[in-house]
Amino acid sequence: xxxxxxxxxxxxxxxxxxxxxxxxxxxxxxxxxxxxxxxxxxxxxxxxxxxxxxxxxxxxxxxxxxxxxxxxxxxxxxxxxxxxxxxxxxxxxxxxxxxxxxxxxxxxxxxxxxxxxxxxxxxxxxxxxxxxxxxxxxxxxxxxxxxxxxxxxxxxxxxxxxxxxxxxxxxxxxxxxxxxxxxxxxxxxxxxxxxxxxxxxxxxxxxxxxxxxxxxx
Amino acid sequence: xxxxxxxxxxxxxxxxxxxxxxxxxxxxxxxxxxxxxxxxxxxxxxxxxxxxxxxxxxxxxxxxxxxxxxxxxxxxxxxxxxxxxxxxxxxxxxxxxxxxxxxxxxxxxxxxxxxxxxxxxxxxxxxxxxxxxxxxxxxxxxxxxxxxxxxxxxxxxxxxxxxxxxxxxxxxxxxxxxxxxxxxxxxxxxxxxxxxxxxxxxxxxxxxxxxxxxxxx
Lengths: 217, 217
Description:
The structure is a homodimer of 217-residue chains. The first copy, chain A, has 217 residues and is α/β, with parallel strands linked by helices.
Protein backbone atom coordinates (compact mmCIF):
# COMPACT_ATOMS: atom_id res chain seq x y z
CA UNK A 1 0.00 0.00 0.00
CA UNK A 2 1.22 3.51 -0.82
CA UNK A 3 2.78 5.44 2.05
CA UNK A 4 0.91 8.63 2.95
CA UNK A 5 3.01 11.72 3.49
CA UNK A 6 1.91 15.14 4.78
CA UNK A 7 3.71 18.17 3.30
CA UNK A 8 3.63 21.38 5.34
CA UNK A 9 3.76 24.56 3.24
CA UNK A 10 3.68 28.20 4.38
CA UNK A 11 3.04 30.45 1.40
CA UNK A 12 4.50 30.48 -2.12
CA UNK A 13 7.98 31.93 -2.75
CA UNK A 14 11.08 31.82 -0.55
CA UNK A 15 11.08 35.47 0.57
CA UNK A 16 7.73 35.32 2.38
CA UNK A 17 6.72 31.68 2.11
CA UNK A 18 7.78 28.21 0.97
CA UNK A 19 10.78 27.88 -1.36
CA UNK A 20 9.06 26.76 -4.56
CA UNK A 21 11.77 24.52 -6.05
CA UNK A 22 12.15 22.70 -2.71
CA UNK A 23 8.38 22.15 -2.48
CA UNK A 24 8.00 20.95 -6.08
CA UNK A 25 11.11 18.73 -5.74
CA UNK A 26 9.40 17.18 -2.68
CA UNK A 27 6.15 16.46 -4.53
CA UNK A 28 7.93 15.05 -7.61
CA UNK A 29 10.10 12.84 -5.41
CA UNK A 30 7.15 11.61 -3.34
CA UNK A 31 5.12 10.30 -6.28
CA UNK A 32 8.35 9.03 -7.89
CA UNK A 33 8.88 6.94 -4.72
CA UNK A 34 5.34 5.58 -4.96
CA UNK A 35 3.97 7.64 -2.07
CA UNK A 36 0.79 9.71 -1.86
CA UNK A 37 0.76 13.19 -0.36
CA UNK A 38 -1.52 15.84 1.06
CA UNK A 39 -0.49 19.47 1.51
CA UNK A 40 -1.24 21.67 4.53
CA UNK A 41 -0.52 25.28 5.46
CA UNK A 42 -1.54 27.71 8.20
CA UNK A 43 -4.73 29.62 7.31
CA UNK A 44 -3.07 32.89 8.26
CA UNK A 45 -2.46 36.36 6.77
CA UNK A 46 1.07 37.79 6.57
CA UNK A 47 2.70 40.82 4.98
CA UNK A 48 4.07 39.72 1.59
CA UNK A 49 7.48 40.46 0.09
CA UNK A 50 7.81 41.41 -3.59
CA UNK A 51 10.22 38.81 -5.02
CA UNK A 52 11.62 41.20 -7.65
CA UNK A 53 12.24 44.26 -5.48
CA UNK A 54 12.52 42.64 -2.03
CA UNK A 55 10.17 45.30 -0.66
CA UNK A 56 7.04 44.65 1.45
CA UNK A 57 3.95 44.10 -0.70
CA UNK A 58 0.27 43.32 -0.12
CA UNK A 59 -1.08 41.01 2.60
CA UNK A 60 -1.16 37.30 1.68
CA UNK A 61 -2.83 34.24 3.14
CA UNK A 62 -0.31 31.41 3.59
CA UNK A 63 -2.76 28.63 2.73
CA UNK A 64 -4.32 30.37 -0.28
CA UNK A 65 -0.86 31.22 -1.67
CA UNK A 66 0.55 27.73 -0.99
CA UNK A 67 -2.45 26.38 -2.95
CA UNK A 68 -0.63 27.67 -6.05
CA UNK A 69 2.16 25.13 -5.53
CA UNK A 70 -0.17 22.13 -5.18
CA UNK A 71 -2.83 23.06 -7.74
CA UNK A 72 -5.48 24.03 -5.18
CA UNK A 73 -5.36 20.78 -3.18
CA UNK A 74 -4.57 22.00 0.32
CA UNK A 75 -6.01 22.02 3.85
CA UNK A 76 -5.51 24.09 6.95
CA UNK A 77 -2.62 22.95 9.15
CA UNK A 78 -5.10 22.46 12.00
CA UNK A 79 -6.63 19.57 10.07
CA UNK A 80 -3.35 17.65 9.90
CA UNK A 81 -3.84 14.50 11.98
CA UNK A 82 -0.53 12.58 12.28
CA UNK A 83 -2.51 9.36 12.85
CA UNK A 84 -3.55 9.52 9.19
CA UNK A 85 -0.01 9.76 7.79
CA UNK A 86 3.20 7.71 7.69
CA UNK A 87 5.60 10.68 7.51
CA UNK A 88 5.79 14.47 7.23
CA UNK A 89 8.00 16.85 5.20
CA UNK A 90 8.68 20.55 5.80
CA UNK A 91 10.22 22.35 2.78
CA UNK A 92 12.17 25.54 3.54
CA UNK A 93 12.10 29.21 2.60
CA UNK A 94 11.56 32.17 4.93
CA UNK A 95 8.02 30.86 5.37
CA UNK A 96 9.49 28.24 7.73
CA UNK A 97 11.66 30.79 9.59
CA UNK A 98 9.14 33.66 9.72
CA UNK A 99 5.67 32.11 9.51
CA UNK A 100 6.04 28.62 11.04
CA UNK A 101 8.43 29.94 13.71
CA UNK A 102 10.21 33.10 14.78
CA UNK A 103 13.70 31.59 14.24
CA UNK A 104 14.43 34.07 11.44
CA UNK A 105 14.19 36.96 13.90
CA UNK A 106 15.05 35.39 17.26
CA UNK A 107 17.22 32.35 16.50
CA UNK A 108 17.21 29.55 19.08
CA UNK A 109 15.41 31.82 21.57
CA UNK A 110 12.41 32.09 19.22
CA UNK A 111 9.22 30.06 19.28
CA UNK A 112 7.51 27.60 16.95
CA UNK A 113 3.86 27.88 15.88
CA UNK A 114 1.85 25.68 18.35
CA UNK A 115 0.34 23.69 15.44
CA UNK A 116 3.83 22.97 14.10
CA UNK A 117 5.11 21.93 17.54
CA UNK A 118 2.14 19.59 17.96
CA UNK A 119 2.75 17.98 14.56
CA UNK A 120 6.48 17.45 15.09
CA UNK A 121 5.93 15.98 18.58
CA UNK A 122 3.17 13.64 17.44
CA UNK A 123 5.04 12.29 14.40
CA UNK A 124 8.09 11.79 16.62
CA UNK A 125 6.06 10.13 19.40
CA UNK A 126 4.57 7.75 16.85
CA UNK A 127 8.08 6.97 15.56
CA UNK A 128 7.20 8.28 12.07
CA UNK A 129 9.91 9.95 9.97
CA UNK A 130 10.18 13.73 9.64
CA UNK A 131 11.90 15.32 6.61
CA UNK A 132 13.19 18.89 6.91
CA UNK A 133 14.66 20.98 4.10
CA UNK A 134 16.81 24.14 4.00
CA UNK A 135 16.07 26.23 7.14
CA UNK A 136 13.20 23.95 8.30
CA UNK A 137 15.57 21.78 10.42
CA UNK A 138 15.46 24.67 12.91
CA UNK A 139 11.80 23.73 13.59
CA UNK A 140 12.84 20.22 14.64
CA UNK A 141 15.81 21.58 16.60
CA UNK A 142 13.49 23.86 18.58
CA UNK A 143 10.96 21.08 19.35
CA UNK A 144 13.21 18.00 19.67
CA UNK A 145 16.66 19.49 20.22
CA UNK A 146 16.87 18.16 23.78
CA UNK A 147 16.83 14.63 22.31
CA UNK A 148 20.32 15.33 20.94
CA UNK A 149 19.00 14.99 17.43
CA UNK A 150 21.42 15.16 14.46
CA UNK A 151 20.62 17.37 11.49
CA UNK A 152 22.08 19.66 8.81
CA UNK A 153 21.51 23.10 7.36
CA UNK A 154 24.59 22.78 5.12
CA UNK A 155 27.72 24.52 6.34
CA UNK A 156 26.57 27.96 7.51
CA UNK A 157 28.62 28.17 10.73
CA UNK A 158 26.54 30.85 12.44
CA UNK A 159 23.22 29.01 11.95
CA UNK A 160 24.86 25.69 12.90
CA UNK A 161 26.12 27.15 16.21
CA UNK A 162 22.68 28.62 16.89
CA UNK A 163 21.10 25.21 16.22
CA UNK A 164 23.48 23.52 18.68
CA UNK A 165 22.18 25.82 21.44
CA UNK A 166 18.95 23.76 21.34
CA UNK A 167 20.85 20.57 22.17
CA UNK A 168 20.72 19.32 18.58
CA UNK A 169 23.96 18.24 16.85
CA UNK A 170 24.82 19.82 13.49
CA UNK A 171 26.59 17.91 10.71
CA UNK A 172 27.97 19.68 7.62
CA UNK A 173 26.46 18.44 4.34
CA UNK A 174 26.79 19.37 0.63
CA UNK A 175 23.71 20.57 -1.26
CA UNK A 176 23.04 17.38 -3.21
CA UNK A 177 23.22 15.13 -0.14
CA UNK A 178 21.24 14.64 3.10
CA UNK A 179 21.77 13.64 6.74
CA UNK A 180 19.80 10.88 8.47
CA UNK A 181 19.27 10.55 12.22
CA UNK A 182 18.12 6.90 12.27
CA UNK A 183 17.30 6.78 15.95
CA UNK A 184 15.02 9.81 15.89
CA UNK A 185 13.92 9.31 12.26
CA UNK A 186 14.78 12.85 11.20
CA UNK A 187 16.19 13.43 7.70
CA UNK A 188 17.51 16.83 6.58
CA UNK A 189 19.00 18.36 3.41
CA UNK A 190 20.44 21.89 3.01
CA UNK A 191 18.93 22.83 -0.40
CA UNK A 192 18.86 26.64 -0.84
CA UNK A 193 20.78 27.23 2.39
CA UNK A 194 23.36 27.18 -0.41
CA UNK A 195 22.05 30.37 -2.04
CA UNK A 196 23.94 29.77 -5.27
CA UNK A 197 22.83 26.14 -5.67
CA UNK A 198 21.51 25.09 -9.05
CA UNK A 199 17.98 23.65 -9.26
CA UNK A 200 19.10 20.09 -10.11
CA UNK A 201 21.45 20.01 -7.08
CA UNK A 202 18.57 21.00 -4.80
CA UNK A 203 16.42 18.36 -6.50
CA UNK A 204 19.08 15.69 -5.94
CA UNK A 205 19.29 16.44 -2.20
CA UNK A 206 15.51 16.49 -1.78
CA UNK A 207 15.09 13.34 -3.87
CA UNK A 208 17.57 11.50 -1.62
CA UNK A 209 15.80 12.72 1.51
CA UNK A 210 12.36 11.70 0.23
CA UNK A 211 13.51 8.24 -0.92
CA UNK A 212 14.99 7.57 2.54
CA UNK A 213 11.88 8.98 4.26
CA UNK A 214 9.48 6.78 2.29
CA UNK A 215 11.62 3.67 2.87
CA UNK A 216 11.77 4.46 6.59
CA UNK A 217 8.00 5.12 6.88
CA UNK B 1 30.35 25.86 -23.58
CA UNK B 2 27.02 25.74 -21.75
CA UNK B 3 23.93 26.28 -23.90
CA UNK B 4 21.88 29.35 -22.95
CA UNK B 5 18.14 28.90 -22.70
CA UNK B 6 15.45 31.56 -22.20
CA UNK B 7 12.41 30.52 -20.12
CA UNK B 8 9.22 32.55 -20.61
CA UNK B 9 7.00 32.72 -17.52
CA UNK B 10 3.68 34.55 -17.05
CA UNK B 11 2.84 34.69 -13.34
CA UNK B 12 3.00 32.05 -10.59
CA UNK B 13 0.30 29.39 -10.33
CA UNK B 14 -1.66 27.62 -13.07
CA UNK B 15 -5.01 29.36 -12.61
CA UNK B 16 -3.74 32.86 -13.44
CA UNK B 17 -0.12 32.30 -14.40
CA UNK B 18 2.58 29.72 -15.06
CA UNK B 19 2.02 26.14 -13.88
CA UNK B 20 4.59 25.90 -11.07
CA UNK B 21 5.57 22.21 -11.33
CA UNK B 22 6.08 22.59 -15.09
CA UNK B 23 8.28 25.67 -14.59
CA UNK B 24 10.37 24.11 -11.80
CA UNK B 25 10.69 20.85 -13.76
CA UNK B 26 12.02 22.96 -16.65
CA UNK B 27 14.65 24.72 -14.51
CA UNK B 28 15.78 21.47 -12.79
CA UNK B 29 16.06 19.73 -16.17
CA UNK B 30 17.97 22.62 -17.74
CA UNK B 31 20.79 22.69 -15.17
CA UNK B 32 20.74 18.87 -15.07
CA UNK B 33 21.43 18.94 -18.84
CA UNK B 34 24.33 21.35 -18.29
CA UNK B 35 22.52 24.41 -19.67
CA UNK B 36 22.24 27.91 -18.23
CA UNK B 37 18.93 29.76 -18.15
CA UNK B 38 17.41 33.21 -17.77
CA UNK B 39 13.76 33.81 -16.97
CA UNK B 40 11.51 36.44 -18.56
CA UNK B 41 7.87 37.49 -18.11
CA UNK B 42 5.61 40.32 -19.29
CA UNK B 43 5.73 43.32 -16.95
CA UNK B 44 1.95 43.48 -16.88
CA UNK B 45 -0.89 43.60 -14.32
CA UNK B 46 -3.71 41.05 -14.46
CA UNK B 47 -6.66 40.11 -12.24
CA UNK B 48 -5.51 37.21 -10.04
CA UNK B 49 -7.38 33.98 -9.27
CA UNK B 50 -7.42 32.56 -5.73
CA UNK B 51 -6.02 29.03 -6.11
CA UNK B 52 -8.03 27.64 -3.19
CA UNK B 53 -11.46 29.08 -4.03
CA UNK B 54 -11.08 29.64 -7.78
CA UNK B 55 -12.56 33.13 -7.34
CA UNK B 56 -11.06 36.39 -8.68
CA UNK B 57 -8.57 37.93 -6.24
CA UNK B 58 -6.33 41.00 -6.14
CA UNK B 59 -4.41 42.41 -9.13
CA UNK B 60 -1.01 40.80 -9.78
CA UNK B 61 1.99 41.69 -11.89
CA UNK B 62 3.06 38.75 -14.05
CA UNK B 63 6.80 39.48 -13.79
CA UNK B 64 6.82 40.19 -10.05
CA UNK B 65 4.81 37.03 -9.35
CA UNK B 66 6.91 34.87 -11.70
CA UNK B 67 9.97 36.12 -9.77
CA UNK B 68 8.80 33.80 -6.97
CA UNK B 69 9.49 30.75 -9.14
CA UNK B 70 13.03 31.79 -10.08
CA UNK B 71 14.14 33.35 -6.78
CA UNK B 72 13.96 36.96 -7.98
CA UNK B 73 16.14 36.50 -11.09
CA UNK B 74 13.85 37.68 -13.88
CA UNK B 75 13.65 40.31 -16.62
CA UNK B 76 10.88 41.88 -18.66
CA UNK B 77 9.91 39.92 -21.77
CA UNK B 78 10.80 42.98 -23.86
CA UNK B 79 14.44 42.45 -22.94
CA UNK B 80 14.55 38.94 -24.37
CA UNK B 81 16.92 39.06 -27.36
CA UNK B 82 16.89 35.71 -29.19
CA UNK B 83 20.41 36.48 -30.52
CA UNK B 84 21.70 35.93 -26.96
CA UNK B 85 20.14 32.46 -26.52
CA UNK B 86 20.38 29.00 -28.05
CA UNK B 87 16.79 27.95 -27.30
CA UNK B 88 13.56 29.03 -25.58
CA UNK B 89 11.01 27.19 -23.39
CA UNK B 90 7.41 28.17 -22.60
CA UNK B 91 5.93 26.30 -19.60
CA UNK B 92 2.11 26.09 -19.47
CA UNK B 93 -0.70 27.09 -17.15
CA UNK B 94 -3.54 29.52 -17.89
CA UNK B 95 -0.88 32.23 -17.92
CA UNK B 96 0.04 31.00 -21.41
CA UNK B 97 -3.59 30.82 -22.56
CA UNK B 98 -4.86 34.02 -20.91
CA UNK B 99 -1.83 36.30 -20.47
CA UNK B 100 0.54 35.37 -23.32
CA UNK B 101 -2.36 34.89 -25.73
CA UNK B 102 -6.15 34.95 -25.88
CA UNK B 103 -6.38 31.25 -26.87
CA UNK B 104 -8.14 30.39 -23.58
CA UNK B 105 -11.07 32.61 -24.55
CA UNK B 106 -10.99 32.66 -28.34
CA UNK B 107 -9.24 29.45 -29.42
CA UNK B 108 -7.55 29.50 -32.81
CA UNK B 109 -9.22 32.83 -33.67
CA UNK B 110 -7.44 34.50 -30.74
CA UNK B 111 -4.23 36.52 -30.80
CA UNK B 112 -0.75 36.14 -29.31
CA UNK B 113 1.00 38.89 -27.34
CA UNK B 114 3.19 40.79 -29.89
CA UNK B 115 6.31 40.18 -27.75
CA UNK B 116 5.60 36.44 -27.75
CA UNK B 117 4.99 36.38 -31.49
CA UNK B 118 8.28 38.24 -32.06
CA UNK B 119 10.20 35.77 -29.87
CA UNK B 120 8.73 32.64 -31.48
CA UNK B 121 9.37 34.01 -35.01
CA UNK B 122 12.95 35.04 -34.25
CA UNK B 123 13.97 31.75 -32.59
CA UNK B 124 12.38 29.90 -35.51
CA UNK B 125 14.04 32.14 -38.12
CA UNK B 126 17.41 31.53 -36.45
CA UNK B 127 16.73 27.76 -36.50
CA UNK B 128 16.92 27.58 -32.69
CA UNK B 129 14.75 25.04 -30.84
CA UNK B 130 11.49 26.03 -29.10
CA UNK B 131 10.10 23.92 -26.21
CA UNK B 132 6.39 24.22 -25.38
CA UNK B 133 4.65 22.59 -22.44
CA UNK B 134 0.97 21.86 -21.61
CA UNK B 135 -1.24 24.50 -23.35
CA UNK B 136 1.77 26.58 -24.56
CA UNK B 137 1.95 24.64 -27.89
CA UNK B 138 -1.06 26.77 -28.89
CA UNK B 139 1.30 29.79 -28.97
CA UNK B 140 3.51 28.09 -31.55
CA UNK B 141 0.47 26.86 -33.47
CA UNK B 142 -0.86 30.42 -33.75
CA UNK B 143 2.49 31.88 -34.90
CA UNK B 144 3.96 29.02 -36.97
CA UNK B 145 0.91 26.85 -37.72
CA UNK B 146 1.05 27.61 -41.43
CA UNK B 147 4.42 25.80 -41.55
CA UNK B 148 2.51 22.55 -40.95
CA UNK B 149 4.31 22.16 -37.65
CA UNK B 150 3.75 18.98 -35.57
CA UNK B 151 3.01 19.24 -31.85
CA UNK B 152 1.05 17.75 -28.95
CA UNK B 153 -1.24 18.88 -26.15
CA UNK B 154 -1.84 15.26 -25.05
CA UNK B 155 -5.10 13.72 -26.23
CA UNK B 156 -7.75 16.39 -25.62
CA UNK B 157 -9.70 16.03 -28.86
CA UNK B 158 -11.40 19.43 -28.77
CA UNK B 159 -8.17 21.38 -28.26
CA UNK B 160 -6.37 19.19 -30.82
CA UNK B 161 -9.03 19.98 -33.47
CA UNK B 162 -8.81 23.68 -32.63
CA UNK B 163 -5.00 23.54 -33.01
CA UNK B 164 -5.33 21.90 -36.44
CA UNK B 165 -7.35 24.93 -37.65
CA UNK B 166 -4.06 26.87 -37.57
CA UNK B 167 -2.46 24.48 -40.07
CA UNK B 168 -0.45 22.69 -37.35
CA UNK B 169 -0.64 18.89 -37.08
CA UNK B 170 -1.56 17.38 -33.69
CA UNK B 171 -0.09 14.08 -32.47
CA UNK B 172 -1.45 12.31 -29.35
CA UNK B 173 1.14 11.83 -26.60
CA UNK B 174 1.13 10.40 -23.04
CA UNK B 175 2.03 12.67 -20.12
CA UNK B 176 5.54 11.30 -19.51
CA UNK B 177 6.59 11.58 -23.18
CA UNK B 178 7.13 14.39 -25.72
CA UNK B 179 6.80 15.04 -29.46
CA UNK B 180 9.63 16.42 -31.61
CA UNK B 181 9.23 18.26 -34.91
CA UNK B 182 12.84 17.95 -36.11
CA UNK B 183 12.41 20.08 -39.23
CA UNK B 184 10.95 23.07 -37.38
CA UNK B 185 12.80 22.35 -34.11
CA UNK B 186 9.67 22.46 -31.96
CA UNK B 187 9.38 20.06 -28.99
CA UNK B 188 6.18 19.71 -26.98
CA UNK B 189 4.97 17.73 -23.94
CA UNK B 190 1.41 17.61 -22.54
CA UNK B 191 2.19 17.84 -18.78
CA UNK B 192 -0.89 19.07 -16.85
CA UNK B 193 -3.12 18.97 -19.93
CA UNK B 194 -3.59 15.65 -18.12
CA UNK B 195 -5.26 17.25 -15.09
CA UNK B 196 -4.82 14.12 -12.94
CA UNK B 197 -1.14 13.62 -13.78
CA UNK B 198 1.23 13.00 -10.88
CA UNK B 199 4.17 15.38 -10.40
CA UNK B 200 6.85 12.82 -11.38
CA UNK B 201 5.06 12.02 -14.64
CA UNK B 202 5.00 15.73 -15.55
CA UNK B 203 8.68 15.92 -14.57
CA UNK B 204 9.54 12.96 -16.81
CA UNK B 205 7.87 14.54 -19.85
CA UNK B 206 9.49 17.93 -19.26
CA UNK B 207 12.89 16.33 -18.58
CA UNK B 208 12.71 14.47 -21.90
CA UNK B 209 11.72 17.67 -23.74
CA UNK B 210 14.54 19.70 -22.16
CA UNK B 211 17.21 17.03 -22.82
CA UNK B 212 16.19 16.93 -26.50
CA UNK B 213 16.03 20.75 -26.68
CA UNK B 214 19.54 21.20 -25.23
CA UNK B 215 21.01 18.51 -27.53
CA UNK B 216 19.35 20.16 -30.53
CA UNK B 217 20.50 23.70 -29.58
